[in-house]
Amino acid sequence: MSKQLKTLYIIWYREVLIYLRNSVKFFTSIFLPIIILIFFGTGLKTMFPISILNYDFVQFFFPGILGLSISIMAVSSTISIVWDREFGFLKEILVSPISRSTIILGKILGATTTALIQGALILLIIPYLGLDFSKFLFIKAMLIIFLISYGMASLGIFLVSRLKKIENFSIISQLIFAPMAFLSGAFFPLSNAPEWMARIAFYNPLNYGIDALRWVILADSLPKEEILLITSHSLSLSIFILLGFNIIITFLSTRVFNKSVY
Amino acid sequence: MSSLKAKEEQIENNQNNISEVIQVENLKKRYKHVKALNGVSFTVKKGEVFGLLGPNGAGKTTAINILCTLSQPSSGVTYVNGYHIVHQSSAVRNSIGLVFQETILDNHLTAEENLYLHAMLYGITRKEYLERRRELLKLCELWDRRKARVETFSGGMKRRLELVRSLIHWPQILFLDEPTIGLDPQTRRKIWDYIFNLRKKKNITIFLTTQYLSEAENCDRIAILDQGEIVALDTPENLKKTIGEDIIFLRTENNQIAEKEIQTKFPNHSIKWIGKELRVKVENGDKFLPVLVKAISPRIVSMELRRPTLEDVFLEITGRKIRDGNKEAEEESGPFSLYSLFSFFKNNE
After folding, report:
1. Looking at the structure, do residues B154 and B254 belong to the same domain, yes or no?
2. Between chains, do B91 and A97 touch, taking CB under 8 Å as contact?
3. Range of the domain at B300
């Protein structure tokens, strides 16, 4: 068992090391969400004067952008498996005597960690956005970020682990991740969306993730009734769905990877 | 539970006693349209340098991939180090080291990090790792560069590092798939020096594939693979003996007449056309040469006497030069035809 943990650790370590060492990737992963929040957020805010909304637009926008950023981070970290295949390094790992489940778990946890680092740094700008911030809120938000990014990383592995070429990833990101992002409730509340849209969003795990983030981050800043207006699911349901999704997708991604060739 | 333990012990005992570390019996591998391996059988003895030779696409890499448990055979029984390659694949992986055809180091990491990653994957303790690292890196002259990132390495250095890496877990068998491909002759010789040094020191078995026939001469035994089948298997010396002691290449102004004259005067020697030259196999080439010159009437353009090389063996057995490779399969439509514009959808295969 300790041997398995050791190999799990080394696979995880490599993923995180590559992320931290690649300073360009590290910088852009923090920079882009902040840019979106400042420019896009401020711009959109002008369309909704305070008199219409009972809450600050940033309060609505921030949890969504945070959720999307960490999801993108988690998924794009899993592309390393395609890089590894294209440049052959995957072979080196596959011919070693460690089990494939360990490889997968190490990769998922590595991608999750990169998303956690990014999430933590973005959370630190909360006080500057005029939202209430506390240590307790930070920890709770990090737990939700873990649940979301773990699920998205597993989903990434599930979709990516059979790809032979990096270019093919754009197909997956357009067909699957773009619709997931638009129907996650990050850009507009799904509570007012037409029924057919709400019905599709009902099957979108990211929707539950963003809702959970809103409940946790806005808990101190907004009254409960207001949060109800901009979410479609309760906090407990969201966490429950995220947990269930994570378990199922871990199982599926392990299965797919076991069948994939080097 | 106890019977399982007994079985494990039995296997353990087998490990120490086996003299044939690789046993391959009627191995077949079929891809969708191609038979990559078509019933291959051979054994490799402990401590041997065994070479697998063949043109591009003969199935060498397929064979190595199967022996290393990277791909599964369609049929056939194969044991590596006494373990079944399908049912005991992780035991097989533990006892082998690999250097692939392409360089597969992690460029983001330093030389040392690449080694440590590998050592951890094979469950080696830190103490053992530190000892071996020093010994192996010094042997391959990489000790000074151990803290440099791999992306700054030259091709030869990368190869050497791969060699070190494949040995850090003390494998019983070392697989080398074209270890010197794409390297300059000087580096190539060095790599071979390291390989033979290692073999002397560690008494490991080495299984390699190569296209360079001159390098294959270093092997203890050679199997020639052609179109998925083994067409010859012996020591390089014995293989060369099948050709005869010496070969004379002869070119005259009229080869037809020369051929007839040789056939009538020396019926014991076999003659074959190779391109524009005549090839004559003889027992004692240097003594036969003057006799031959007197015996033929057409003027001689060129004449060459040499000992047979493995290239000659390959030529004899497969009927063509090793460099020619397999004939490319005819494409359904020519290049730049309108039809082939649509075929890019199929490129994912």
Report:
1. no
2. yes
3. 245-307
Together in a domain, B230 and B253: no
Q: Please give the mean pLDDT across all residues of chain A.
A: 87
Compute CA distances A44 → A12, A56, A61, whole Å. 39, 11, 10
Encoding tokens for residue A98?
């460690």
How many residue contacts between A and B have a Cβ separation below 8 Å? 61
- Mind telling me how many Å the CA of B155 is from chain A's nearest CA? 15
User: How far is it between the farthest Cα atoms of chain B?
Assistant: 84
At residue A112, the pLDDT reads 96
- Is the pLDDT at A111 greater than 70? The verdict is yes
Chain A contacts of B126, Cβ < 8 Å?
none
Q: Is B11 an interface residue toward A (CB < 8 Å)?
A: no
CB B55 within 8 A of CB B326: yes
List all residues of chain A from 223 to 252 with a beta carbon under 8 Å from chain B.
Answer: none
Residue with tokens 């497969």: B318
Query: Is B147 among the domain residues?
Result: yes
On whether both B27 and B50 belong to a single domain, the answer is yes
By Cβ distance, the residue of A87, A99, A164 closest to B104 is: A87
CATH number at residue B286: 3.30.70.260
- Same domain as B220, residue B260: no
Structure tokens, B253: 């102004």
**Token digits of residue B36:** 């990559």
Is residue A91 within 8 angstroms of chain B, CB to CB? Answer: yes
Contact of B121 with chain A, judged by CB distance below 8 Å, is answered with yes
Task: Give just the sign of the alpha carbon dihedral B25, B14, B163, B104.
Answer: positive
Last residue of a domain, one of B209, B235, B261: B235
The pLDDT tens digits for B192-232 are 887 788 788 778 899 988 877 777 888 889 998 888 888 88
Task: Specify the amino acid at residue A47.
Answer: M
CA distance B291 to chain A (A): 58
Contact A94 B94 (CB under 8 A): no
Give the closest-approach CA distance of A171 to chain B in angstroms: 12
Residue B162 CA from chain centroid, whole number: 17
Query: Which among B227, B195, B220, B224 has a CA at the least distance from the CA of B211?
Result: B224
